Amino acid sequence: MRSRSRHEHKRILATPLALSLAIPAISATSAMATTLEEADPATPPGTFREINLGTDRTTQNFFYRIPALAHLGNGVVRAAWDGRPGSAGDAPNPNSIVQRKSNDNGVTWGPVTTVAAGFTGTADQGKYGYSDPSYVVDDESGKTFAFFVYSKDQGFGGSTWGKDDTNRQVLSAAVVESSDDGATWSKPRLITDVVKPGDSAVPGAVRSTFATSGQGIQITRGQYAGRLVQQYAGDVMQSDGSRVIQAFSVYSDDHGATWQRGEFTGSAMDENKVVELSDGRLLLNSRDNAGGGYRKVAISSDGGHSYSAVTQDKNLPDPTNNAHITQMFPEAAANSARARKLLYTGANSQTSRANVSARVSCDDGKTWPGLRTIRRGFSAYSVADTLDNGKFGVFYEGNYTDSMQLATFDES
């Protein structure tokens, strides 16, 4: 177990400026999401620093995509992504999960290491791969988990029904865990039977599913404090015979020993994230698979087991892209002003993956009055976390090859 949890460490380092908007050069916006003009990221007040973690490529891991980020406390930060051989393609490309470690809140970084290695295949053995990483940090036990898909011959679009992990037509679900801040990892543990119910096309069965990349959470307030929550998206058979892409949570109340699947929610969902609100409820925030132009949101009052009806948040544009939402002050007291502050990162466009930006809410995600552009032009998936030096980190794709950018900035 860590000598000091990441939340305890943040509490020590937080400053009185925490009650101000926490992104430098944030300007007021209208209630409706728009693409706003911003100052160059390098010039606003406060500090802004950016480093490319994706410059060290190999033939096996030549194309880099899909960022994941986790602050583990005591200055330790882990950043992971897909190393993709041959092309930048999703599963079933024989991808690997790779990562780098920082011991100084993202200032300097160690070499690329492998969490789970894919295999390109031989005449005697078929290919397999691991894709789309998401970290979940358990501050209570000191463990770190990484979720991802395990593919053989099919990806999300081609996977068949059933949960038989030996079936090469089934897209499987995997999780690994570490007790040493990600220095070493367990062998992949398959949880396909949890996340992919049903062996045939019957109502409630899941044809294909994946853990949504980036980062999951541990609930810290209320009845479900301590629960670990990782989001999934799945292609679910409905009672009328139709198939719908729905979101759902997978959670653990025993520090990852066992995992449970919550109820399916929404339609035309996709990569989705949850954030804990000031009162312990969860806010789900999802990519719109149907291209509706805005993020989809819902609320859970039972720790992610079920969610309210899904609505559009027209403060947050969405070009069918993975985004992220996180607490700015996870150590804050329940229902306090600090606890109500959230940070959202995503493409500031309804039509293209471009202009990755950070937005701030001071009211548990009801409104998003602050905007800060991080990267102009093409930029895609992103994930964010609070560091224990009072800064914020946003890890995002600058392209689909060799641009895995970590932007860090303070709250001035």
Question: How does this model look, in words?
Answer:
The chain is an all-beta fold. The chain has a single domain, classed as Neuraminidase (6 Propeller). It contains two helices and 27 strands. Helices cover 3% and strands 39% of the residues. It catalyses: Hydrolysis of alpha-(2->3)-, alpha-(2->6)-, alpha-(2->8)- glycosidic linkages of terminal sialic acid residues in oligosaccharides, glycoproteins, glycolipids, colominic acid and synthetic substrates. Keywords: Signal. It holds the Pfam family BNR_2.
Structural features:
single chain, 412 residues, mainly beta, Neuraminidase, 5-stranded mixed β-sheet, 39% strand
Structural class: mainly beta
Biggest pleated-sheet summary: 5 strands, antiparallel
Q: pLDDT below 50 for ≥5 consecutive residues: which ranges? A: 9-44
CATH-level-2 architecture = 6 Propeller
Q: How many domains make up the 3D coordinates?
A: 1
What would you call the shape? Answer: globular
List how many beta strands DSSP finds. 27
Compute the number of helices: 2
The overall pLDDT, averaged over residues, is: 91
CATH fold annotation: Neuraminidase
**In order across it, which strands form the biggest sheet?**
1-24-23-22-21
- What is the H-and-E element order? HEEEEEEEEEEHEEEEEEEEEEEEEEEEE
User: Helicity level, as a percent range?
Assistant: under 10%
